[in-house]
Amino acid sequence: MEAREALRGKKRIVIKVGTSTVTYEKTGYINLEKMEKFVRILINLRNQGKEVIVVSSGAVGIGKNVLGIEGRPKGSVKQACAAVGQGRLMMIYEKFFAEYSQLTAQVLLTRESVYNETCRRHAKKTFEELLAMNVVPIVNANDAITVDEDSYGNFGDNDTMSADVAALVGADLLIMMSDIEGLYTDDPKLNAKARFVHTVYQIDERLERMGKGAGSELGTGGMTTKIEAARTAVAAGTDMVLANGDNIYIINDIMAGKRIGTLFVSGGVEHENEMAPEKETYRGIARHQRKMEIQKSAAGGR
Ligand SMILES: Nc1ncnc2c1ncn2[C@@H]1O[C@H](COP(=O)(O)OP(=O)(O)O)[C@@H](O)[C@H]1O
Ligand SMILES: N[C@@H](CCC(=O)OP(=O)(O)O)C(=O)O
C-alpha cells in the first residue's frame, strides 16, 4: 500500500504541538480557538477508534506570560515559569476535553523516565494502563524539577521527547507540528531555492546536512533535532509526519492520507527520497499553502 494511504489505518498516534501552536506568538497568550479545535480533532480520532497521546509544549511560554517575565527565561526562573504554566496549560486541556466527557492525564517526563531501564518499564506500563482506560495522556517535560542536563535540555527538547514517547509506546504514527510545512533541502528562510521534501525513506548523511538550526528566536533545535527525532521514530517502526501547526485541521488531512507535510517512512529503505521538482521552490509552496488556507477560511474553516 502507498505510504500516504497507509496513514489512514494507523491506530496509535502521538501528536506533538509546540509553543507556537498553543499560544499566540506576538502576545504569548493561549490560543484558545486553536486549542479547542485541536481537542475536537483529537476526540474525533478517539471516536474513530484510535488511541491518541499528546505531547504538548507551552508551559514555559504560558508561565512566563502570566508572571510577566520578559525575554527567554533561564535556570530556576524557567523552572518556576514551567511550574506555573503547566497547571494553566492542563486546566485549558481539561476544560475542552471535559466538554466531551473525555478523560485526560498529565504525564511529565525527564530523560531518566525514558533512558533508565526501570523507569522506562514503569512509564510504559502507565501509558498502557491509561490507553486501556480510554484516557488521553498529555505529556510534557518535567521542567519544574529538572535542570537542563537531566531534562530534555535546551536543545530539541519536546521534539526529541515526542519521538522517545512514540518509541516507548510503540506508536504507529508520530505527527509533529512545526512552524514550517515540513523538511526542505535547506532552510527555506535563508535559501529561497530550497526544495520541499515530500517523503523520506532513508535518513542518510545527505538528508542530515539539509537540517539547519531554529529559524525563530523562540524555536528550539530547528530541523536538526526534528531529523534526529524522525530517526528515533522510524527506527522504532513509527512513521512520522512533520507539518505546519498554523492550520490545525491539517491533522485531518494527514490522517486522510493527503500529500501534506514531510512523511518519514519506517522500514522503507528500498525507495529514493521524494522531493518537489526544482521549479516548486519554497516561495511557490508557501504561496500554494496560503491560497489553500484562504479557501478554507472562505469555506467557514471547514
Ligand atoms: N532544511 C530545513 N527545512 C525546513 N526548515 C528548516 C530547515 N533547516 C532549518 N529550518 C528551520 O527550522 C525551523 C523549524 O524549527 P523550530 O524553529 O525549532 O520550530 P518549531 O519549534 O515551531 O518546530 C524552520 O522555521 C526553519 O527556519
Ligand atoms: N517543556 C517546554 C517545551 C520545550 C519545547 O520543546 O518547546 P517547543 O519548541 O515549543 O516545542 C514547555 O512546555 O514550555
TrEMBL record:
- Ranges that cross the membrane: none
Q: Does the keyword Ligase apply?
A: no
Q: Does the keyword Transmembrane apply?
A: no
What Gene Ontology molecular-function terms does this entry list?
A: glutamate 5-kinase activity
Which pathway does the UniProt entry assign to this protein?
Answer: Amino-acid biosynthesis; L-proline biosynthesis; L-glutamate 5-semialdehyde from L-glutamate: step 1/2
The Enzyme Commission number assigned here is 2.7.2.11
Residues where ATP binds: 16, 178-179, 220-226
Query: Matching InterPro entries, A to Z?
Result: AceGlu_kinase-like_sf (IPR036393), Asp/Glu/Uridylate_kinase (IPR001048), G5K_ProB (IPR041739), Glu/AcGlu_kinase (IPR001057), Glu_5kinase (IPR011529), Glu_5kinase/COase_Synthase (IPR005715), Glutamate_5-kinase_CS (IPR019797)
Compartments in which it is found = Cytoplasm
UniProt keyword terms in alphabetical order: Amino-acid biosynthesis, ATP-binding, Cytoplasm, Kinase, Nucleotide-binding, Proline biosynthesis, Transferase
Q: Which residues form the Aspartate/glutamate/uridylate kinase domain?
A: 11-244
| SUPFAM superfamilies named among the record's database cross-references | Carbamate kinase-like (SSF53633)
Residues given in the record as substrate binding sites: 57, 143, 158
Q: Which reaction does it catalyse?
A: L-glutamate + ATP = L-glutamyl 5-phosphate + ADP
- The coiled-coil regions, if any, are none
PANTHER family in the record: GLUTAMATE 5-KINASE, ISOPENTENYL PHOSPHATE KINASE
Q: NCBIfam families per the record?
A: proB
User: Which HAMAP family does the UniProt record give?
Assistant: ProB (MF_00456)
Q: What does this protein do?
A: Catalyzes the transfer of a phosphate group to glutamate to form L-glutamate 5-phosphate.
Tell me the protein family, please.
Answer: Belongs to the glutamate 5-kinase family.
Protein name listed in UniProt: Glutamate 5-kinase
Q: Which source organism? A: Bariatricus massiliensis
Which gene produces this protein? Answer: proB
